[in-house]
Amino acid sequence: MIEPIGNQYIVARPVYSKNAFGEDHKKKDRHHKTFLDHVKEGCRCSSQKAKRIALSLFPIASWLPAYRIKEWLLSDIVSGISTGLVAVLQGLAFALLVTIPPGYGLYTAFFPVIVYFFLGTSRHISVGPFPVLSMMVGAVVTRVTSDASGAAMDVSNSSMSTTLDQHKVMVAATVTVLSGIIQLAMGILQIGFVVIYLSDSLISGFTTAAAVHVLVSQLKFMFQLSVPAHTDPFSIFKVLHSIFSQIENTNIADLVTSLIILLVVFVVKEINQRYKAKLPVPIPIELIMTVIATGVSYGFDFEHRFNVTVVGNMQSGFQSPVAPDVAVFQETIGDSFAIAIVGFAVAFSVASVYSLKYDYPLDGNQELIALGLGNIFTGSFRGFASSTALSRSGVQESTGGKTQIAGFLSAMIVLIVIVAIGFLLEPLQKSVLAALALGNLKGMLMQFTEIRRLWRKDKYDCLIWIVTFICAIVLGLGLGLAASIAFQLLTIVFRTQFPKCSTLANVGRSNIYKNKKDYFEIYEPEGVKIFRCPSPIYFANISFFKQKLIDAIGFSPLRILRKRNKALKKIRKLQKKGLLQVTPKGFICTVDDLKDSDEELDNNQIEELDQPINTADLPFQIDWNGDLPLNIVVPKISLHSLILDFSAVSFLDISSMRGLKTILQEFTRIQVDVYIVGTDDDFVEKLTRCEFFDDEVNDSIFFLTIHDAVLHILMKKDYSTSKLSPNQEKEMKYDFTINTNGGLRNRECQVPVETKF
Q: Where are the bilayer-spanning segments (predicted)?
């Protein structure tokens, strides 16, 4: 019973072992579903289940009927127009990252939005081109088409260049379809949880490295230099070397234009960010600068006067869908999987932020289906992989977007450009698009500040960020992501394989037990050690656990056991030869020395030395902490009880069970009682199923708390001569009054004789 008294509480209950608690409090018989039960439930049909499946596959059917036209429509219209204008420019700009003609970027800004409108569960993200994903697709396109690219550079025929562009478009579309198929399969198989293997630190480090790749890739458009494609590891350094080796060939008009655009975009974006609470809508600086740059380029004929590169021919309307190139599938399966995972991880992360902010549910598996089908449609119409851009989603939400109606309207703006007014963008310089692409990287590049924050909070997360960034920079985005995930999983192994074990002690003379190194006023019962392991115990760390336990108690139980068995063999020889007599004062030996070889015992009878100590054949008892005859020396130990705190041990595997049982047997054989606390019932049931218990190790070693085990030990040692039945022992209670500052006001053990604590 717990009675609150001000800032104190009083507890009075029996000292409970697991068995005693089970006798007093009966458990419910619960039926745990088997795999067959889940299969049967999944195959069961009902009208309610059919309705639930339909609503989950088409989320629009749940939110569209509840749409508030008067309250939301105007906001969605404003948001849709603003987002659509941004999507047009980002589609053109990010197409340069894929190394395909800019016009194909508009398809990526249109098709995924239409599909997501019907199938997506987030109401605020803007689906479409994302610079990191575009960069990853571009790296694949460059690698697959590198040979054809070399041939095109040697031939000045324009038809050859057109053929190369078409080949690049087909490769990008094929990779997009394949990544969409992977996302769709993952969604159907309900394995959207795979995103949990991408931590925030890993995503932050990876997107920052991708932003650096984007920055380097756009330099050739800003300087208007001919840079050969590189896709192997260290490619970023090769690109930089190629750029700076021909820097004297820079087109000054392109460089000046891009720098002016970049400066203005950065300044206005900073104003938008600083005064976002006062501005009704963010200043559409990308649109303004695009209109100005296009007009200036057309009016002053930059293409012919300064030899700048422009967007060029913008084909009106849509091209007919094409089947993906199956031959490319084999070469790009690994890259497509990485693109699928990164695209989903980024989109789901952004969607989670808005779902928490506006309090509506988000379905990860349905998001995979929506993104997967969107990429399949986009790739079929010659677009490239999509996700969500942070800046574009921010525009949609900050301009008042309430639902995906805003996204649908943004797609209509893109449609108008594709069908009717795309030709107006033909004089636009590619260097302007490169500057607009770089203007959207500020948020990702500012993630460098994460290093200081992560270092203060968690060294492992900081290390993951740094390693991810370096791997993605040095190895490239595809191999870098794989290496980063492998390293992240390795850190998890390190954390569990080498846990920070500790020795606990009583603090404040209460029922509170903490690391003895952290407090001045501690109390340790004589002959009792409390050892805590804060991680699962499995095959990889059972040896580490055993070594840490030995270090904590100061001796190896196996070594003590072998020493005692060696000593017992010598004592038996002396006793059989009549050379040893026992008196009330101790042993009397009538021989000065016993010729025996320890090495011989070690080498030939090692298995016998590991067996339990059996003194039943001797007419006397041996005190192993007392004086032994002759030169027989056995290390003396003061430990009589060991408590293992397993409150943080979530599981044991079969290998660790064998190791743990061996440890318990070794301590038991040297007369050290071992108690395990903090485990749940499933833990004990698993040990029972695995036949863990026997005559030496039984299930009576489990106690509810550390304090239960400590009180049981104190009572056992103080009343070892008393003939108490198990029921009498269970009725021994402890009362203590504790204040919230940790001090013990009073304590009294309700037992026949006073026990000091």
A: 77-98, 104-121, 169-198, 252-269, 281-300, 337-356, 368-385, 405-425, 462-490
Listed residue (159, 267, 666, 208) closest to 446, CA to CA? 208
Burial class (CB in 10 A: 0-12, 13-18, 19+), 589: middle
Per residue in 467-501, pLDDT (tens digit) is 999 998 998 877 888 899 899 988 888 888 888 99
**Residue pointed to by tokens 């005693």:** 20
User: Whole-angstrom Cα distance, residue 509 to residue 522?
Assistant: 8
Tokens 């370096």 locate to 470
Tokens linked to 334: 């690994």
In tens, the pLDDT along 112-170 reads 999 999 999 999 899 999 888 888 898 899 888 875 454 444 444 555 567 888 899 99
- pTM of the entire structure? 0.74
Whole-angstrom distance, CA of residue 32 vs CA of residue 625: 51
Rg (CA), the chain: 37
Q: Which residues pair with 502 in a beta bridge?
A: 532
Locate 166 and state its tokens: 């078409």
Helices (H) and strands (E) in the chain, counts: 32, 15
Contact 407, 84 (CB under 8 A): no
Cα–Cα distance measured from residue 310 to residue 551, given in angstroms and rounded to the nearest whole number? 72
Output the CA angle 375-378-379, nearest 5 degrees: 85
Query: For 62-138, where are the E strands, in sequence order?
Result: 127-128
Task: For residue 556, give Cα distances in angstroms to 33, 667, 677.
Answer: 44, 9, 22
For residue 418, the 8-state DSSP code is I
